[in-house]
Amino acid sequence: MQIARFYQKKDDLVECLLCPRGCRLKEGQVGACGAREVKSGELYSTNYGCLAAANRDPIEKKPLYHYYPGHSVLSLGTFGCNLQCSFCQNWTLARGGPEQAPKRVGPGDVLQMLEREGGPGNVPGVAYTYNEPIIWYEFVYDTARLLHEHGYKNILVTNGYINREPFEELLPYIDAMNVDIKAFNDDFYSEYCRGRKGPVIETVEKAVQACHVEATCLLIPSVNDDPAEQEELARWLGSLNPDLVLHYSRYFPQYKLDKPPTPVEVLERSKELAQKHLRYVFLGNIDLPGASDTTCPCCGNLLIKRTFYRISLEGLDGNYCNNCGSWINIIMPDTDEK
Hints:
Elements: E1 2-3, E2 7-10, E3 13-16, E4 24-25, E5 36-39, E6 42-45, E7 50-51, E8 53-58, E9 72-77, H1 91-94, E10 103-104, H2 107-116, E11 125-128, H3 137-149, E12 153-158, H4 164-170, E13 176-180, H5 186-193, H6 197-207, E14 212-219, H7 227-240, E15 245-250, H8 264-274, E16 280-284, E17 294-295, E18 302-307, E19 310-313, E20 316-317, E21 320-321
Parallel strand pairs: 9-11, 11-12, 12-13, 13-14, 14-15, 15-16
Antiparallel strand pairs: 1-6, 2-3, 3-4, 5-6, 7-10, 8-9, 17-18, 18-19, 20-21
Helix pairs in contact: 2-3, 7-8
């Protein structure tokens, strides 16, 4: 184990300051995330370097549609999560323990893995994903700094549930994020995730000033698919940047929640409402013609054709539509402006 960052001692308790849960722990106790434990009066990260999964994935799988489209990234994950979503789509890792991540690696090992894949020109970087990378903080921070020094990109696929100070320290080494916004109301976060909406909103607002951000919302029928709420979510995202990408993902029964899959018409309605405020809205976990294609918001020209995770660059000239010349919010390796 490695000693954790962002905690303080209060009497006979240790208070974790990494995320808004603020767990107060006695000797031997483990935080709600399952990955931070008090030993000898100090807080330790129990998942530092513990690797549950390492795969070369299409970046579209994260999902990131407007960041290095068509490229692969090295995807790494461990165990644990600081939210407790009853509908978790990856609960075996989120609610798992060290037995789920038997392999141990250091930041230098990750760098070597990337070098073996051919360097930044072949695999541009790492996505910290699968479980919640925020509670892998110390390892992600150390690895992201090292990879940044060697010209690689760092991507967070996260629920955004992190306190301001640790996020601000990590953010300079993060190039892109996909933030999973569970819903746009506090009652949902409290009942279904045991969290709060506010810190996630703050994370997104901070991130869009520093790196490429895309958002995902898993639409659960009769739970978070209210049209007024979804339009409010899109309006807020659009106020940050109307070019920000929103992914609506189709829900399927998983973990503790047993509702029917999201109806197609709910996905299509939500997309239509969101497009009043955002230029790029996509539907995921569903096979619908054009649902994941990027088109020019000015002339409708097909820019990127997506068939599952296979893509075809149809109408782009760098960052511009090759039909009308409009600038498109897509970051390519040769147009990376971060």
